[in-house]
Amino acid sequence: xxxRAEKVASTIKRLLAQHINDISxxxxxxxxxxxxxxxxxxxxxxKIYVSLLGKDTEPGLLLDELENRNMFFKHxxxxxxxxxxxxxxxxxxxxxxxxxxxxxxxxxxxKSGSSDLFK
Length: 119
Prior knowledge:
GMP Synthetase, Chain A, domain 3
């Protein structure tokens, strides 16, 4: 990513992080964290990755709600940033924490000699 794209991504992340967390709490989808923003080279697309914590997380519910509020986020970006064109926003679920938890469980099961490695 170019320096300009990195700066835009960082600013978008700062602008939207708290709003995404608030929306997640509002719809009771779990505790949301905006993990990464990736910008296209031409700055016309922002890929926003969101992670969820909690026992009863609802990533599909959260992603649908974020997509429904897409214009709200674009308005925030337009209001705060000086860009030629406001980027299109696409939301993705970041399941890195889920993979880490699964790997941790597999390692613990292997250490204890459990035969349930592939639950």
